[in-house]
Amino acid sequence: MKRSGFLKRKTPLRKQSQSPSALFKVQIQDTLRLLVTARDKGCILRDSRCGVTAELIDNKVVSNTVIQADHLITRSNSATYADHRLVVCLCKGCHGWKHWNEKEYDILVKRILSKDRVQLWERCEEERMSHRAVKMDWAMELLALKQQLRELSTDLSLDNSDRS
Questions:
Q1: CB of 122 within 8 A of CB of 7?
Q2: Are the CB atoms for 94 and 49 separated by under 8 Å?
Q3: Do residues 41 and 67 make contact, with C-beta atoms less than 8 angstroms apart?
Q4: Beta-bridge mates of residue 68
Q5: Which SS3 state, helix, strand or coil, does residue 90 take?
Q6: CA-CA distance, 28 to 158, in Å (whole number)?
Q7: What Rg, from alpha-carbon coordinates, does the chain have?
Q8: Taking a C-beta distance cutoff of 8 angstroms, is the pair 70, 87 a contact?
Q9: What is the pLDDT of residues 44-100, one digit of tens each?
Q10: Gap between the Cα atoms of 117 and 124, Å rounded
Q11: Of the residues 30, 44, 109, 123, which has the fewest C-beta atoms closer than 10 A?
C-alpha cells in the first residue's frame, strides 16, 4: 500500500520522559547542583578565570550570576552520573568557555581539585573507554546525595555559628 505525503503525529512529542528513571535523574541533577554549589561556594575557576563566588545565606546559595553543576565525565555514563566527587561548580561563562577550550579547562581543574578526586577522574575516564553497561539504582543514588547534602548543610551551619 502506497502512502502519499508525510505521516503526521496526532499528539506532540513529550519534552521529557515520564519514566521512573528519568524522573529520578531530574531529582538527582537538582540535588547535585545544590550539593556542589554549597561545597564549592561558587565557580571553582574564580581565582584563575572569572571571580564569581556564591554567598551562603541560611544554608541557601545566593549569587548574582548563573551557577551550574558541570560533570567532569559525561552524564551518559551511568556509573558516574550521580557521583558528586566528579561534579564541579562553574559559572555560566566558564561553563561555555569549557566547551571551546576543553584541554586547557581539564588542566586548570586538575590543578584545583584534590589529588584523590583527580585520580578518581582519571580512573573513571579509563574505565569509560571499556563501554561497560551499568544498571543503577537511581533511588539509592538520590538518597545518598540527599544524605551528603544534609551533612554538608550541617557542617556549614556549624562553621557559620563558630564565626559568630
A1: no
A2: yes
A3: no
A4: 90
A5: strand
A6: 25
A7: 19
A8: yes
A9: 888 776 655 655 545 555 556 788 889 998 888 888 888 999 999 988 888 888 888
A10: 10
A11: 123
- Alpha carbons 10 and 99: distance in angstroms, whole number: 38
Q: Tell me, what amino acid is at 118?
A: V
Q: How many Å apart are CA 95 and CA 89, to the nearest integer?
A: 9
What DSSP designation does 85 have? G
Residue 27 pLDDT > 60, yes or no? yes
Among 57, 6, 26, residue whose Cα is nearest residue 138: 26
Q: Which of 99, 97, 72 is closest to 86 using CA atoms?
A: 72
Cα separation, 94 vs 45, in Å, equals 7
Residue 69 C-alpha from the chain's centroid:
4
Cα(82)–Cα(25) distance, rounded to whole angstroms? 8
With contact defined as beta carbons under 8 Å apart, do 146 and 92 qualify? no
90-147 pLDDT per residue, tens: 888 888 888 888 999 899 899 999 999 999 999 988 887 665 666 788 899 999 999 9
Query: In the chain, which ranges are continuous DSSP H helix?
Result: 20-40, 92-100, 102-112, 115-128, 138-163
In contact, 149 and 35? CB cutoff 8 Å: yes
